[in-house]
Amino acid sequence: MRARDEFTCIRRFITVIHMQTTLTPAQDTTRRAPPIHPVWLRVTHWLNALAALIMMFSGWRIYDASPIFRGFVIPPSITLGGWLGGALQWHFAAMWLLVFNGIAYLALNLASGRFRMKFFPLSPRAVLRDLLAALTGKLSHTNLEQYNAVQKLAYLVVVIDLMVLVLSGLAIWKSVQFPLLRELMGGYDNARIVHFCAMAVMAAFVVVHVAMVALVPRSFLTMLRGR
Ligand code: HEM
C-alpha cells in the first residue's frame, strides 16, 4: 500500500515536470507573464503623482499671496498649507520627492530601454489617427501593454512639462545663484509666468488623465498590481 502511494506521488511529480516543460506559455497557468508595468515604474509613478499634486495645491496658495494676474486668485478652500508659510513648507518638501523620484523614473526608463520601446515610434499622423478614433469611440483598449499615439504624446508632454516646472521653479527660488537659468526664462517675473503656465498644462493633463483612467478602469488596476 505504502509503495503504491509513493509510486503515485512520483508519477504526479513527473507529470507536473512534463507539463511545465512542454506546455506553451499560453497554456501554462503555473508560470506568470512579466508584469505590464514593472514595480519600479509603478512606485515612481505614484510617488510622482503624490509629489506633483502636493506641489500644485500648495503652489496655488503661494500664488494667492502675490497673484501674477490681476484679479485672479485661486479659492483658498482648494489650496494646501493653510497660509503662505505652511504652503511653502509643503512645496519645498514635495519638491525634493518630485526631483529625486523624477530622476529615478527617467534613469530607469532610459537605462532599461523602456522609454524608446513604450513611447516611440511616434508621428503626427498616428496621433491624428488615434485622436479621431478616440473621439468617435473606435479606439481599442484591449491591449494595455501598448500606449496609443495620443497617450504617448500626452505622457511625453507631461514629462517635459514637469522638467520645465522644476527649472522655472529653480529660477524663481534661486534666481541670484542661477542667473543663466533666470535669463533663459526671460527674467524673474517671466519665470513666474512660465512656472504658472507649466502648472496649468499639468493641471489640464491630470484632469484628462484621470478621466481617461476612469473610462478604462482596468488600466488603473494595471498601474497598481502590474498586471
Ligand atoms: C500629477 C499627477 C500625474 C502624473 C504627472 C502622471 C503621469 C503619468 C505618466 C507619465 C504615465 C506613463 C508612465 C510610463 O509608462 O512611463 C502615467 C500612466 C498612468 N497613470 Fe498617471 N499621472 C498622474 C496621476 C495619476 C492619477 C491620479 C492616476 C489615477 C487615477 C493615474 C493613473 C495612471 C494609469 C492607470 C496609468 C497607465 C495608463 C495605461 O496603462 O493605459 N495617474 N501617468
UniProtKB/TrEMBL annotation:
Subcellular location as annotated: Cell membrane
InterPro entries per UniProt: Cyt_b561_bac/Ni-Hgenase, Di-haem_cyt_TM, Hydrogenase_cytochrome
Gene3D superfamilies according to UniProt: Transmembrane di-heme cytochromes, Chain C
Domain annotation Cytochrome b561 bacterial/Ni-hydrogenase: ranges: 37-225
Biological processes annotated in GO: respiratory electron transport chain
Keywords, sorted A to Z: Cell membrane, Membrane, Plasmid, Transmembrane, Transmembrane helix
Domain of life: Bacteria
Ranges annotated as spanning the membrane: 39-63, 83-108, 153-173, 193-217
GO cellular component, one term: plasma membrane
Keyword Membrane tagged: yes
Bilayer disposition of the protein: Multi-pass membrane protein
GO molecular function terms attached to this record: electron transfer activity; heme binding
Name of this protein: Putative transmembrane hydrogenase cytochrome b-type subunit
